[in-house]
Amino acid sequence: MAATRRPSRRLREDRILAAVLLAPALLIIAVVTIYPLLHSFWISLHAWNLMKPKEGNPFVGLDNYINTLTDPIFLDSLRVTIIFTIAAVVIEISLAMGIALILNRKFIGRGLVRMLALLPWAVPAVVNGIMWKWILNPSYGALNGLLYSLGLIDEYVIWLGSPELALAMVVVADLWKETPFIMLLLLAALQTIPKDLYEAATVDGANVVQSFFRITLPLIQPVLFVAIALRTIWALKSFDLIYTLTAGGPSNGTSVVGYYTYIKSFVSLQLGRGAAVAYIMTLFVLILVYIYYRVLYRKVEY
Amino acid sequence: MATLSTPSPLRHTPGRRWRKARSAIGGILFYALVGMLVFALLAPFVWMIISSISPPTELASKPIHWIPEHPTLDRYRALFFGARQGEIVPIAVSKFINAMKSSLIIATATTLVCIITGTAAAYALIRLPVPKKEGFLFGMLAAQMMPIIVIIIPLYLMMQRLVLNDTWQGMILLYSGFMLPTVIWIMYGYFQTLPEELEEAAMIDGCSRVGALLRVVLPISGPGLVAISAFAFLYTWNEFFMALIFTASRTKTIPVIVTEFSTQAGIDYGLMTTAGVIGSLPPLILAFLLQRYIVAGLTSGAVKG
Lengths: 302, 305
Hints:
The structure holds two protein chains of two kinds. By secondary structure, chain A is mainly α.
């Protein structure tokens, strides 16, 4: 008995210590995320409009969800979100992959280039927004000035003037900020691939394209998965850039779901509706995470 | 070396001169691409710096003044020391220093809270018996991915009830809560790379577990701690959405102030870009100084996630 009691006391002490060490972090996380998450669901089941305080907040079941899913403005913001997300993720991942492949060799100034690639990532998203707003300024913006002096445009373009062009410009601003970060992730993954694998493949007669698809891609697939998943989720959550660059305009052309939720909750003060939209958005994110997980991880097993 | 009589196993060996020329062209092409990349990385930000030191007349000129003829630090002076008398400037100018202070306090305090509580939690998860450990880790990952907007309304009500709206304490609590899952996740990944034998040896030598954590584990966790500190500080400094909702006159942070440079005459782009440049400096300096740790932290966290 004595032999078993000693380790069990040690185990008990370790359990207590674990609880003590975990408690502060878990308490903070619970207060800031778990409790509000549950409360938010509760709110989403109630009609609660701060503009109409006399009506109180009666229970309405799933009305907020139904009203949201049938609201043409919401559906439009969903469309904008999907277009923005697909465009941003596809372009960013392919660009980042291309640049990472080019930079994946020893050259003079490699360290410097890698350091500079951290610049867009470190700049606050809001600053990125105002920076591009100034660059895209229709009267004095640098983009108009540059294209005009190169003779590529005959007159200054109002870049944020039409819904389609504005959305394209939001994607451009997003590209500048996010691509280098993904590139660094992919570059780090590329550098873990042993060089002799490529040499062996070349001896066996494989060309560059074959080595890319047979060696590079399978080996960096886990990192690529993470990059695509992370980027998609961030793109779905985009808010700062939209708020500063276009404020959802023109004519809601760049109003992504995140912005729509903000307007519903904090401008029209329909708290129940806002909570419902946010829940739908979260569900969307979770489904996507799950799909990515299934699709990209199934291949590894082959 | 003179005779290369053995037939090459390859079908065709191009002449040495041709090969040399080709590699030279390849080299030029490569550096041209690298040059384009560096230009794309730097140009927008450099343009913001140039705009911040161009006098107003040059900012509003066609064709564009790419290089300011009469560079001025007037706007920097205005933001740090206040506007000259009689100068008409956006109200944000007088609030800039306060926002800087606010951002510094909130970001530093959040980083400290995250390091202490996050490291403790990560250590418990990796070395101590915790029931449903997998559940904890998955929960952390899910919390990391959750859109903040889904909980913003209850948070607002809670902050109001606790009288924490527009206070440093409130912002530190919120940011810690959002940053902790990431911090725990990265620290957990880092602890995985440390050999358990070190602590066991220390504990056999009479060290308690807490003693082993403090005297053995933490001193060799430098890189991990640096990475999470950098992330926590950067995230908190750059965060906009919660700051927009929860801060007002007292604790407004730099990202919020940066968006407020409009007057009745429109947006003052000169002052706005100046504020943008200054506001970007702390995260940029941090990122450049700690780049090795940041990239390592990003990749290790990402690969394990």
